[in-house]
Amino acid sequence: MFAFIHKHKKTMTFGAGFLLMLALALNSGGFHELRQLTLILATVIAGIPIAIKAFQALRMKAFSIELLVTIAVIGALFIGEYVESAVVTFLFLFGDYLEARTLEKTRSSLKGLVDMAPQEANIIRNGVNVTVPVEEVAKGDHVIIRTGGKVPVDGKILTGHALLNEAAITGESVPASKKIGDKVFSSTVIDTGYIEIIAEKVGDDTTFAKIIELVEEAQESKSKTEKFLNKFANIYTPAVVLLSIVVYILTRDLHLAITFLVIACPGALIIGAPVSSVAGIGNGAKNGVLVKGGEVMDRFSKVDALVFDKTGTLTKGKPEVTEIKVFHSYNEQELLQWVAQAEMVSEHHLGQTIVKEAKARNMDFGQEPENVEVTKGNGLVAKVGERVLAIGNRKLMKAKNISIPAETESYAVGREKSGNTAIFAAVDGKVAGIFSIADQIREDAAPALAQMRKNGVKKIVMLTGDNQHTAELVATALGLDEFHAELLPEDKVAFVNQLKKQGYVVAMAGDGVNDAPAIATADIGLAMGEGGTDISMETADVVLMADKLMQFSHAYSLSKATIRNMKQNTFFAVGIVAVLLAGVLTGSIHLASGMFIHEASVLIVILNAMRLMGFNYKKIKTGKYLKPANAGI
Known about the structure:
Layout (H helix, E strand, L loop, with lengths): L1 H6 L1 H20 L3 H28 L5 H14 L3 H25 L1 H9 L3 E6 L2 E6 L8 E5 L7 E12 L1 H4 L5 E3 L4 E2 L4 E13 L5 H14 L3 H28 L2 H10 L3 H20 L2 E3 L2 H7 L4 E4 L1 H5 L5 E7 L5 H12 L5 H12 L9 E6 L3 E6 L2 E6 L1 H6 L6 H12 L3 E7 L2 E9 L6 H10 L4 E5 L4 H11 L3 E3 L4 H13 L4 E5 L5 H6 L2 E5 L5 H6 L2 E3 L4 H38 L4 H20 L23
Parallel strand pairs: 9-16, 9-18, 16-17, 18-19, 19-20
Antiparallel strand pairs: 1-2, 1-3, 3-7, 4-5, 4-6, 4-7, 8-20, 10-15, 11-12, 12-13, 13-14, 14-15
Helix pairs in contact: 2-3, 2-5, 3-4, 3-5, 4-5, 4-10, 5-24, 6-11, 8-11, 9-10, 9-11, 10-23, 10-24, 11-23, 11-24, 14-15, 18-23, 23-24
Subcellular location: Cell membrane; Membrane
Protein name: Cd(2+)-exporting ATPase
Main location: membrane
């Protein structure tokens, strides 16, 4: 029964509206009794869904707005105010219909994401090219995607080259060039080209599926304002009933008491905050920023201190080996091969940079390293063949009692001052060479930081495990307030805690792997998504899917705009209720007109929230106050 009524709620709404117009026509024709019956029928049709919702809320021990309307309508029928009862129930139900439509509109970014999901995949099985539903693709399948096709799963390119539109993942519509060995993600679209990939993540494990799940969860998550308003409604509703009884006792005017009951419904107040939150989170998803809920949005808007990791956050995270300096009788090729073999087991980006260099030179990686000992933040020690290698920074060399000759130290310092990271490689207890690795500052780092300063950030700090010289180059180029170099993960956590004790609301941005402890410690943890790595999605409160700092600026501006929008809606809703109640008590506002204004106020707060869907940060021009972000580091 309940399900049937809910399913046909729209039909009942417009049916009641038709009966209201019919009653108006009957009144013009002088059919008074038939008009009364039509109005009662309209009241019953429109009132049933409202009464059911009120009953369901009461069963959950909640006092809903529908309960106020149901009581008021029964009272109106009792005193013979059939026009009032019919108009109130229709307007309430029609307002509910419009709310649902506009709320659906605010969730359109999520619906748009869902619609992007591919339905079929073209795969090779047993040497035959077949088309199967995307749910049937298994890990290890070879998938073919041609021009105009959607990538059905996450995977790695085996053959081909293509330009891919990755807007579904990153929010960026500029096509990305992909070649053999590159990763591609589900729901991205091939603009031009042909690729064959091996499926690595399928079904609910794909990056795109996780994005949809996160956005759904975020839109259900409530901000502090929403939580307060929900509690407020449970107190406010019974209070209004009691006040209506008091009005009746004092005035002996049942019509006035019923009018007071209906007009006091806090509809706009209850809907205002949730719709702002949903619209804000939806805007973020559309622009490649995952904000995990209304409460995160609330905290993010209060951030006044930013802490950044360097590599992969302020810099592009695509370092390259710029020089290999060898000492003693070793040659460059053999040292590179040994170090790359040892670093094969490392997840650190600098170690993988060395591995990438060795692969580019077509070196053999047949021999597995043994007795690998990783010192987080410093480097590793491993046995390769008959040699013991120690690869890392000065702290590792000191910890392993490996002396660094003055000449070697002088060379390393020189490389660092020119913007390189110097990696020491020792063989059997002696420094055998230094690997110079360089990265580049992100082009959008300077304008993004300037924009966030303009929006209220008071302090910007960089924390890095890199050397002092390289860190200073980056900090100077970007005009940061502070920088701290050669830190371990626990040092970063301590610094974030220190800032919090000083009264700052801290956002920590990192790569989501090495910086996970500091990200978790900060008031707001933000990860550069790297196309949506699992750990970045799980650890951070905010994930930038395109790894662009201007997305960070957008997210920060969006959080402030969303909370400001919530406050506007709350202020407007409270003001309207106050004006309406004053009008009721002075006799200038009646039941039907008051209900019309009430429903109009609900739509106004929804429309105000919908402005967030088109919100976009203002791109600021690089001026004299911005330092260039093109230094090689």
